[in-house]
Amino acid sequence: MVEFSNAYTYAVGALLLWGVWGIAANYSVERMDNMAVLLVTYLVGVGVVLALDPGAFGGVEFDAGLALSVLTGLAMSLGTVLFYRALDLGQLSGVTAIPALYFVVAFAYGVLVLGEPVSASQVAGVGLACVAVLLLVQ
């Protein structure tokens, strides 16, 4: 039986699903207004959360976690608005590559603010990923 407790297994699943999301979003914004697509996307997201965990709202506490969750939602939603608009204006192959580099922001934060250790190969990987995206958008 396949073990699904490894973080990288879940990460690969996210990669595949986000790939489908990018493709589906591209077709969606061709057929509907960007904001309507965003609304439907997040309504479905709420439905998925409630289907997976009907008691999810019971875990909401009015503390710093809630404030950070609100910030997370704002960043994700506004980023998605920009992503859908970019898809509406550009080509799928190039547009999806640029925001896929979001990990560079998190990597830099982890290293510079949180003081996480970094290796030369990690820095090279980030650099090569950036070069790859530059080549894709040419």
Automatic annotation (TrEMBL):
Listed SUPFAM superfamilies: Multidrug resistance efflux transporter EmrE
The UniProt record lists the keyword Ligase: no
Domain EamA stretches: 7-137
Signal peptide location: none
A GO cellular-component term linked to this record: membrane
Bilayer-spanning residue ranges: 6-24, 36-52, 64-84, 96-114, 120-137
Annotated source species: Halomarina oriensis
Domain of life (superkingdom): Archaea
Name of this protein: EamA family transporter
Matching InterPro entries: EamA_dom, EmrE-like
Oxidoreductase listed as a keyword: no
Keyword terms: Membrane, Transmembrane, Transmembrane helix
